[in-house]
Design goal:
This protein is α/β, with parallel strands linked by helices and about 300 residues long. It contains eleven helices and twelve strands. It is globular.
């Protein structure tokens, strides 16, 4: 019998106090069932190292023993005394134009896994650099590299991007500029941690690369539980809550939670109760909450899942 793991980062990071959000959340019965679940830190990781090399693998390149890094485009928002990172909004045409321009101006072969995930064979560095998802919505000062060479590279990339016609056109149309390229995930590919799944549904190239390294099926993220294949053990990453929480987008976070409950958890819990799923796992970025059919009788475990998670 199949199992389903939903990776839903952001459940622990609402953009406002839960008490102020509760009346807007709608029914959370399916989510609250996870109060009765077994809880443990999983033996698997969804944060693989050497993300650049794994991205190359996901994109169909052969990483070999070269040093690869991710070079992701981002938008930095200037505040009174800080720069904060926002997610890029970038289509394929603009992405391809900017990559070709940067590669030429910086004399560096840069490649695209998709519009917003870039990678390159890069000069080795020693420190661990933070992924853009870790910096999202935050002042970048605490996350900048300490290596002076990397800082110079970031500054040079910013200057190259500043006057490009793509960014000038975006500014004219009120769109955020792609004004920085963020290096992270550098390294030589090694055997990433095994994953106890037969299928991985994700938007992240580094996780696609991990799945392909282990010979797992890689699939697009389904729209709903009903669209999810029900054979084998499937991982689905749903990150709308995480991004909304980091950016302080209250309405978006509430909508994402309602969608999670209605389109995913309610039908998945129903399938579990109907003995159509062996297990349903909710991973919140720290803890795996594993629910099995018989656990619905753990009626002594009461309360709301969101309240218990904080």
């Amino acid at each position: 019998m199949s199992s389903l793991t939903l990776s839903v980062r952001g459940l622990r990071e609402p953009p406002a106090p839960l008490a102020s959000l509760r009346e807007h959340l709608g029914p959370t019965t399916a989510l609250d069932r996870f109060v009765r679940a077994d809880r443990a830190e999983p033996a698997w990781s969804l944060a693989p190292t050497a993300a650049g090399a794994l991205t190359a693998l996901a994109a169909g390149d052969e990483p070999g023993d070269a040093w690869w890094a991710r070079l992701d485009p981002v938008h930095l928002v200037a505040g009174n005394d800080s720069l904060r990172m926002a997610p890029p909004t970038l289509d394929d045409d603009d992405s391809a134009t900017l990559v070709a321009y940067l590669a030429h101006e910086l004399d560096l072969p840069i490649f695209r896994a998709d519009a917003t995930h870039w990678y390159a064979r890069f000069a080795p560095y020693d420190e661990r650099l933070h992924a853009p998802s870790e910096v999202l919505g935050r002042n970048i000062d605490a996350y900048l590299p300490r290596d002076s060479g990397l800082l110079r590279w970031i500054n040079e990339a910013q200057m190259v991007l500043h006057q490009h016609p793509v960014n000038q056109r975006r500014a004219d149309h009120g769109e955020p500029a792609i004004n920085c390229v963020w290096p992270w995930g550098g390294g030589v590919i090694e055997a990433p941690d095994a994953m106890p799944f037969t299928r991985v549904c994700t938007l992240r190239p580094e996780l696609k690369g991990t799945a392909r390294f282990h010979g797992l099926e890689v699939a697009a993220v389904p729209r709903t539980f009903a669209d999810t294949p029900h054979q084998g053990d499937t991982l689905v990453e749903l990150d709308a809550l995480f991004e909304a929480g980091r950016l302080g987008a209250v309405e978006t976070w509430v909508h994402a939670l309602r969608t999670l409950v209605q389109d995913w958890l309610a039908p998945a819990v129903h399938a579990l109760d109907a003995d159509e799923l062996a297990s349903l796992i909710l991973y919140d970025g720290q803890t795996a909450h594993t629910l099995r059919r018989g656990m619905r009788w753990r009626v002594w475990r009461r309360g709301g899942f969101l309240a218990a998670a904080h």
